[in-house]
Amino acid sequence: MATQKNNVVTHGLSGKIGDLLIFRQRSGKTVVAKVAEQSKTVSEKQLAQRKRFQQAIVYAKVAVEMPETGEQYKDAAKKRRGVTAMNVAVADFLSAPNVESIDLSNYSGKAGERIEVVVSDDFAVKTVQVQIINPDGTTVEEGEAVNSAGSLWTYTCTQENESLDGDKIVVSVTDLPGNVTKEEEVI
Fold this sequence. Notes:
Blueprint: E1 2-4, E2 15-17, E3 21-26, E4 29-34, H1 44-65, H2 67-78, H3 85-94, E5 98-103, E6 114-120, E7 125-133, E8 139-144, E9 146-149, E10 152-156, E11 168-175, E12 180-186
Helix pairs in contact: 1-3, 2-3
């Protein structure tokens, strides 16, 4: 891939020339690349990925125009060379958050005790939900964790839980585009 700066012939040029070259504008520069070869057959996985990418583009267009999310994506793009707010928003849509760890060492079933969760996302985590479920499927309690510091989220328990044997802790992490990752741990 080649880039051109201050070239009067290619300055501002974008589009495809035959099946050989494609010109694009990125951060005020003209980028020239060879046209990628397209496969004649398309698999189900490729179709699914194309649909997901289309959804990401729609999300990004809306999110960049919204006051709060638009500013967040624009600020993130300024920190990365050659990246637009649209690029950041598309990447955010395509990447679900992760649950790195669930720390139950401070939880023995008493109200006021804490469950700490370490989560990550390529952009930002919106919410972390914690649910405590008995082995019979009944919910002991559930609620939203609070961001303590960076990637650490803390849930403070409100109910007494007499027997922890076989209980499940379910953590649901949501990012700005609405991707949800669930992780569960059995006590």
